[in-house]
Design brief:
- By secondary structure, the protein is α+β, with helices and mostly antiparallel strands.
- It has one domain.
- The protein contains three helices and eleven strands; from the N terminus they run H-E-H-E-H-E-E-E-E-E-E-E-E-E.
- A three-stranded antiparallel sheet has the order 7-9-11. Strands 1-2 form a two-stranded antiparallel ribbon.
Length: 291
């Protein structure tokens, strides 16, 4: 029987090892490009969401200013028992400008709902954002905002009684100008006064809020929250406030508080050192490069 000679043109039934390696490498490269593209798209979504939320917060601040005549401070000391520790002069002045000259500073108030009135609470900028836009926690709220799965509003604004604005309960209240997402309330310093978690962050990072003190100027004192100025020295939003998100990398690029004041230059992308380039704000034009 004749056998057909091997002409070298027979079809192969399997890939060689080298070909398999090349195919796997190509798939890896394509997957990497897809991952990078998806990551960029997700960061773009985060930027859009944060910008939208900051616009809502700006509207809420305008509503607050219409109601109280001022924008909220980004630092204040709350005294629960004035008989033991007197209110600071600065806090008195701030609250009188907000609620009127007849505020009763002798009342006992459990601001952080820990069951006593023995605390002196130094609110950080992020805590001020929650406290002034949200107001008092619901008097019937015994669990607070800490447990997971809590839904609905636990912030009820302030009382219309200008002598006792921190009273809980009753229907004669001023509605909060902003509905806080309960699931994003966190307590970074453990004092029972919540901060508002940064939207892109998966960890415990809070939105930075820096007030210009109604145009009087951003604080330069030790412990003041970091904020940005332009390259010519002019403050961004010099008559209002700054909101700053850490962005996709979860890193502000500086220690926001309570470290000494940091005044950062930010006029355009070229001025912003890494890893601050993906910070999202309510003042810088355009979208900065992601880091």
């Amino acid at each position: 029987m004749r056998t057909q000679a091997n002409t070298g043109h027979e079809q192969r039934s399997a890939f060689t090892l080298l070909e398999l390696v090349i195919v796997v490498a190509i798939i890896g490269v394509l997957a990497g490009l897809l991952f990078i593209g998806m990551g960029g798209a997700l960061r773009g979504v985060d930027v859009t969401r944060v910008k939208a939320e900051f616009a809502q917060l700006e509207t809420a601040m305008k509503s607050f200013e219409t109601e109280y005549g001022v924008i909220p401070p980004s630092a204040i000391v709350l005294t629960e028992n004035p008989g033991a520790v007197a209110w600071t002069a600065s806090a008195r002045n701030t609250l009188r400008r907000m609620f009127g000259a007849n505020v009763d500073f002798s009342q006992l108030v459990d601001f952080n709902k820990d069951g006593d009135t023995a605390d002196v609470l130094t609110l950080t900028s992020s805590e001020c954002l929650v406290f002034f836009l949200g107001g008092m926690r619901d008097g019937t709220d015994t669990q607070g905002w800490m447990p997971s799965g809590v839904t609905g509003s636990v912030m009820t604004g302030f009382s219309r009684n200008k002598e006792k604005p921190f009273a809980r309960g009753g229907s004669n209240r001023i509605d909060p100008p902003f509905t806080l997402d309960v699931s994003r309330l966190i307590d970074l310093d453990g004092d029972g006064m919540p901060e508002y978690r940064d939207l892109p962050a998966e960890g415990d990072i809070a939105v930075i809020y820096a007030s210009s003190n109604n145009g009087a100027g951003y604080s330069h004192a030790d412990g003041a929250v970091a904020h940005y100025h332009q390259s010519n020295g002019t403050q961004w939003n010099e008559n209002s406030f700054q909101l700053i998100s850490a962005g996709a990398d979860g890193d502000f690029g500086f220690d926001p508080e309570p470290n000494p004041f940091v005044d950062l230059t930010w006029s355009d992308t070229s001025d912003v050192p890494l890893p601050q380039r993906d910070n999202i704000t309510n003042f810088a034009p355009g979208t900065l490069d992601n880091n």
